[in-house]
Amino acid sequence: MPNRHHPENPGPELPTLPPRPAVELQRRGELRVEKFLEAATVIFNEKGYQAARLADIVKLAGGSMATLYRAFGDKVGLVHALMERSINQFGRSLDELSSSSLPPHEALEQAAYKMVEEILSPARIACHRVVIAEGMSQPELRDWFQAHGVTTMEILLSRYFAREHDAGRLHIEDPDLAARHFYMLVIGGVILRSVNGRMGADDVPLAQEQARSAVTLFLNGALPRT
């Protein structure tokens, strides 16, 4: 029977997704679109998703409501674009991990540092607050973020662990389970504390030191050595 965890295999399929919000995004590099996304980050973090008004975002960013609607469709489309950009930035750390030739401890530490830095960015905090606070009322956004922002990251981690296991550099019986454990151990607490306002961008050095400790604990365990 083929090993579904082997890096040469495609791995588990993404969950079936509801239709993505119908948006007509302009090119990411266009200044007005970026200003809208930056303003949305500020307003969502200050007021929350429900209380945030598109008029507040337009006032802060400049431009017009018509331009915002043309670029994003509506508030859901704006959040969707914010999530998509954050996921792309977060994914770079795991792309680098996938191609890293460093020993696992060094490679995982580097990936953890970058993961934590993105998790504590204002845009990512805004995304997590929407997903956690509005998940029941906005299931399409919640499920899309889970599939693309969490599940795909766990798949990349699982493939890395399977590769390192096959190479004899790690002993991991279930790469999928190990990926979920690593994800939550390294950044689960950071996500929770950033969403409730106890951590932010200024806390990146502290969070990275905690991530380094989490990587060590993940790799070495807590039992005494003989």
Description:
It is a single chain. This protein has 226 residues and is mainly α. The protein has a domain of 140 residues: Tetracycline Repressor, domain 2 (Orthogonal Bundle), CATH 1.10.357.10. The protein is built from 9 helices and no strands. The longest helix is centred in the last third of the chain and has 28 residues. The chain is elongated.
Provide key terms for this protein.
226 residues; mainly alpha; Tetracycline Repressor, domain 2; 69% helix; disordered N terminus
Can you describe this structure in just a few lines?
The chain is mainly alpha-helical. 69% of the residues lie in helices and 0% in strands. It has helices spanning 31-51, 54-61, 65-72, 75-99, 104-119, 122-134, 139-166, 175-195, 204-220.
The end-to-end span amounts to: 37 Å
**What is the overall shape?**
elongated
* Percent of residues in β-strands: under 5%
Fourth-level CATH superfamily of the domain at 81-220: Tetracycline Repressor, domain 2
Radius of gyration over C-alpha positions, nearest whole angstrom: 19 Å
Could you spell the SSE succession in H and E letters?
Answer: HHHHHHHHH
- The helical percent reads 55-70%
Report mean pLDDT, rounded to a whole number: 87
